[in-house]
């Protein structure tokens, strides 16, 4: 079974070549307590039986300087893919995206519209800040997957963007913090825009922060994981360890997520393990029918 971890980070011990410049000026605690470089990440992946890794720029360490991940993409192109970060509000944002994607080999980009475990400034007035329009247009035209860290309350705004930009494809980091609890609608909707699942262009990333939050707030993560798979379909669900931002080995974090899955047939399990990510990022073994439709 092709196994893709879609959410990992790396931190270099070489602070001269890759100096810290975190968003908001506040470096994440995890990056100081559990810094792991590319070699450490690959050892963890080998031990966990992971075939391919998506390395997400650690913006709470390096801000918008994606150099460390870019240099590792050049070294390990057969093993890792990269998601960069750029300033969506910058007048140079499209130029920056072209640089990191076309010249340095990144496959996707990430924007943080809400805090995760580390507080960062919300860009402008949010995802629909008019200054971001050229960026959304570029990403839509080029069909570049966008990882968004947001909360459920942002769903109607995102739905509006998906309606406005028909080529836009979105991955909800940490499942986009859905509402949890019995009989709870996962994400709010609004008149005049589709539900996120109706667009066919929203993908769910199951991660330890999403699991632990559901366990903390609802007593169990299994119901919301089942609801997400039922709502979006396994072909729109993937997993990410969040290693090393989440504490534990990569294998332990993968097991944590796997334990929340409902009973699924082999096809759906293969999709969540790596097939969905393979299709989305155009990876060899996972790039099956439908990849060309992105």
TrEMBL record:
Span list, region Disordered: 13-32
Domain Amidohydrolase-related: from-to ranges: 4-283
Pfam families, sorted: Amidohydro_2
PANTHER family according to UniProt: 2-AMINO-3-CARBOXYLMUCONATE-6-SEMIALDEHYDE DECARBOXYLASE
Matches recorded under Gene3D superfamilies: Metal-dependent hydrolases
Keywords assigned by UniProt, alphabetized: Lyase
Taxonomic source organism: Streptomyces luomodiensis
InterPro entries: ACMSD, Amidohydro-rel, Metal_Hydrolase
SUPFAM superfamilies named among the record's database cross-references: Metallo-dependent hydrolases (SSF51556)
Protein name: Amidohydrolase family protein
């Amino acid at each position: 079974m092709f196994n893709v971890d879609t959410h990992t980070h790396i931190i270099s011990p070489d602070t001269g070549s890759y100096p810290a410049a975190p968003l908001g000026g506040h470096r994440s605690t995890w990056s100081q307590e559990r810094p792991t470089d590319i070699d450490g990440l690959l050892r963890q992946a080998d031990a966990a039986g992971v075939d391919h890794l998506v390395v997400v720029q650690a913006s709470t360490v390096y801000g918008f300087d994606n150099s460390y991940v870019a240099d590792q993409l050049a070294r390990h192109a057969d093993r890792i893919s990269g998601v960069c970060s750029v300033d969506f509000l910058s007048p140079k944002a499209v130029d920056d995206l072209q640089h990191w994607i076309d010249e340095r080999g990144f496959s996707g980009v990430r924007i943080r519209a809400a805090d995760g475990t580390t507080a960062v400034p919300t860009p402008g007035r949010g995802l629909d800040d008019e200054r971001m329009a050229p960026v959304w247009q570029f990403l839509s035209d080029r069909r570049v997957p966008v990882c968004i860290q947001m909360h459920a309350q942002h769903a109607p705004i995102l739905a509006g963007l998906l309606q406005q930009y028909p080529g836009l494809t979105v991955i909800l980091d940490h499942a986009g913090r859905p509402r949890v609890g019995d009989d709870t609608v996962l994400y709010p909707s609004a008149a005049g825009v589709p539900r996120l699942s109706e667009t066919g262009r929203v993908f769910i990333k199951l991660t330890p922060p999403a699991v632990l939050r559901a366990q903390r707030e609802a007593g169990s993560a299994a119901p919301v994981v089942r609801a997400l798979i039922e709502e979006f379909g396994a072909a729109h669900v993937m997993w990410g360890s969040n290693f090393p931002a989440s504490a534990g080995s990569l294998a332990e974090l993968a097991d944590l997520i796997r334990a929340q899955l409902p009973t699924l047939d082999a096809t759906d399990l293969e999709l969540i393990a790596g097939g969905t990510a393979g299709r989305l990022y155009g990876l060899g073994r996972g790039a099956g029918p439908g990849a060309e439709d992105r």
